[in-house]
Amino acid sequence: xxxxxxxxxxxxxxxxxxxxxxxxxxxxxxxxxxxxxxxxxxxxxxxxxxxxxxxxxxxxxxxxxxxxxxxxxxxxxxxxxxxxxxxxxxxxxxxxxxxxxxxxxxxxxxxxxxxxxxxxxxxxxxxxxxxxxxxxxxxxxxxxxxxxxxxxxxxxxxxxxxxxxxxxxxxxxxxxxxxxxxxxxxxxxxxxxxxxxxxxxxxxxxxxxxxxxxxxxxxxxxxxxxxxxxxxxxxxxxxxxxxxxxxxxxxxxxxxxxxxxxxxxxxxxxxxxxxxxxxxxxxxxxxxxxxxxxxxxxxxxxxxxxxxxxxxxxxxxxxxxxxxxxxxxxxxxxxxxxxxxxxxxxxxxxxxxxxxxxxxxxxxxxxxxxxxxxxxxxxxxx
Length: 382
Fold this sequence. Notes:
This is Peptidase. Keywords: Membrane, Transmembrane, Transmembrane helix. It comes from Caulobacter endophyticus. The chain contains 13 helices and 8 strands. The chain is of the alpha+beta class. It has an 8-stranded antiparallel β-sheet with strand order 4-3-2-1-5-6-7-8, with helices on one face. Helix 1 packs across helix 5 and helix 4 packs across helix 5. The protein starts with a helix and ends in a 34-residue tail after the last helix.
């Protein structure tokens, strides 16, 4: 138990601050749609999914001289299309549902929700940040498990507190253990789903009992079909109409142009049973003619793939409505508190031992003074 306690303390002292950052940014991102509705024009517009409106917007957006690479279409909670541009550029834009750009940026630092997502998902370090974040998620799971083990002997001292009763090490440690136990199920959910999205091997290992990695990769692969050159006057009404006819009742979620010569136009759709915001149902089209050449039904994918598709909506609270968003907000803020206070208590006292009180220096003993001899009385003469 002593070794486990030391491992928990020392690793938490070094990784706690990173977990606190991930927790805080995650708690903010849960409410991204509400923030956009309050700050960006047309973000509160009602979602429109009719073929004519979607086709008109796609025609207008892709006809621009500096056209985007893809469009993420408006949702029920956010009435804006998000435009992404090719290459490593940080350029992006929001457009209303008629296709008019209402806000654009050339740096991620311009939009708070964009750089917050970069911090949370990539740690501002691209692919390397993904790996570090995934490892931090696994470390967080380790903290939860070891924390539960360390808490068990002290379970009779459990107290429900949102904040330590005093900002002293014993009170903070007591609060840390009790809060960690209270939110442990939420932390396991958020840390596991976060790690699976960042670490493919971890995701495959968890889903292996349901579907083999090879089976899941094959089911997710794009069709090996060569497309023609993108037509200048492509009939988007025809393209989108075919996707909607192939999957009746499905919500059209993204429209992507070919990433390279010979590629295909890709449209993602979300069928009603799918939790993933943008769905995994796909339709592919020849850019030259607009004819559908392949499709994929997300409901027919292997079980392991369908479980994987639930990671993001569970992690980012894209299901369950306001109640679940508040639950995941609590999870993020609790992780922030646990991580930050762990760092404070560790670096304030890395050994974990109670500090010895300095003893006051003993006063020097007083020197003993011998009594002065009294003079003898002189004899009195008679």
